[in-house]
Amino acid sequence: MKIAVLSDIHGNIEKINSCGKFLSQCDGIVLCGDISTHGEEKEIENVVKELKGINKNIFAIPGNMDGKHSIKILEKLGVNIHGKRIEFNGIDFVGCGGSTPTPFGTPFEMEEEEIAECISKNIEEGEKTIIVSHTPPYKTKTDRVMLGIHVGSKTLRKIVEEKQPLAFLCGHIHEASGIDYIGKTVVLNPGPFRRGGIGIVEIEENGIKAEIERF
After folding, report:
1. Residue 168 and residue 84: Cα distance in Å, rounded?
2. Cα 135 vs. chain centroid, distance in angstroms?
3. What is the pTM of this model?
4. Per residue of the chain (215 residues), what is the pLDDT tens digit?
5. Closest residue by Cα to residue 64 from 23, 26, 15, 8
6. What is the layout of strands, in order, in the sheet containing 167-169?
7. Rounded to a whole number, what is the largest CA-CA distance in the chain?
8. Residue 145: CB atoms within 10 Å
9. What is the spatial distance between Cα 166 and Cα 126, in angstroms, rounded to a whole number?
10. How far is CA 36 from CA 12, 15, 114, 129, in A?
11. Are 177 and 163 in contact (CB under 8 A)?
12. CATH code of the region 2-214
């Protein structure tokens, strides 16, 4: 199974069109939040509908810039996995959108305890689970800001350490595009899609392979 991972699209329809052929050849597309620029309903709808025209299997969570109201929009579009566990091709996708508190007071932020509850109530066996989160886990290549400080979620890191899911897919920190590991778990932040970053996760019987391509 091949999954494309997009994050921080911020309404860029043109970029979607430019890599439509590749996206259509994947088994599914995961959206790790910040689908829109400032949570505009029409922008979220346009992005999701464009992607659904390319690939019918879309799994999405909202980012901190999309706002909490976007959960209902994604639900209406049939792609929401925030606060849910969705099985696809034998893999459970567990989603949690928004972000930990930021210095900017963005529209959809949650305390660590809320994030823990959102994930923990849905996660079961690790080896057949993929966590989809806007916020990266703490102290990896995927959560380091420009000054070199790690700003990810300590709660999410603890969950990954304990549950060891197959993969952890995230975004949020634009400058922290990369792939890392927490134990056996692959952690992937493709970077902002508006700059061409697409994560590619291939799940086979003998394991998982992850990479990032630029389009």
Report:
1. 15
2. 8
3. 0.97
4. 999 999 999 999 999 999 999 999 999 999 999 999 999 999 999 999 999 999 999 999 999 999 999 999 999 999 999 999 999 999 999 999 999 999 999 999 999 999 999 999 999 766 799 999 999 999 999 999 999 999 999 999 999 999 999 999 999 999 999 999 999 999 999 999 989 999 999 999 888 999 999 99
5. 8
6. 85-88, 91-96, 129-133, 167-169, 185-189, 178-182
7. 43
8. 13
9. 6
10. 8, 13, 23, 27
11. no
12. 3.60.21.10
> Which amino acid makes up residue 42?
K
Q: What tokens does 109 get?
A: 């932020």
Residue written as token pair 């209902």: 72
